[in-house]
Write a structure and sequence with these properties.
This protein is mainly alpha-helical and 135 residues long. Helix content is 59%, strand content 6%. It has helices at 6-21, 29-35, 40-52, 77-84, 87-90, 98-120, 124-132, and strands spanning 56-59, 65-68. Helix 1 (6-21) crosses helix 4 (77-84). The chain is globular and about 55 Å long. The two termini are 28 Å apart. The model has no long low-confidence stretch (mean pLDDT 86).
Length: 135
């Protein structure tokens, strides 16, 4: 069972890609989509959510695209995943059932807090530096 959704992985990959490639000029959504072998329509909602949360900054115009919205040492994996969550993701479990409300939701909430703390310790700078480490 995957711990992270496809959208969450895509969001983290997009932010790392922008951190690496937006040095001279913003990274276009088209270039991001091509590098990740995705149709741009799959990527746009994720990029928009990252812009809304200030993780990325959208630049309009013919040479526009995306750049980091703040220093990469201050952007954590947890920040990115929180930005990528949608309403549909948070309402996945039915409400009203005692079993769900009294047992499952509290256990999942505790697990989410633990994972969130761990992901909060990992920032984009850490992940980008891993690319530079020889294997």
């Amino acid at each position: 069972m995957p711990l992270m959704s496809r959208k969450g992985l895509l969001a983290i990959a997009a932010v790392i890609d922008v951190a690496i490639n937006a040095r001279a000029r913003p990274v276009s959504a088209k270039a991001l989509a091509a590098r990740h072998r995705l149709p741009p329509r799959h990527l746009e909602p994720v990029l928009q959510a990252l812009v809304r949360d200030g993780i990325l900054r959208g630049i309009r115009g013919p040479h526009g695209g995306y750049e980091l919205g703040r220093d990469r040492r201050t952007i954590t994996a947890d920040d990115i995943l929180r930005a990528a969550i949608t309403v549909e993701d948070t309402d996945a479990l039915p409400s009203g059932a005692a079993l769900v409300n009294e047992i499952i939701r509290p256990v999942l909430a505790e697990t989410e807090r633990t994972v969130s703390v761990a992901l909060g310790r990992i920032n984009i700078d850490d992940m980008v530096r891993r690319l530079a480490v020889p294997k």
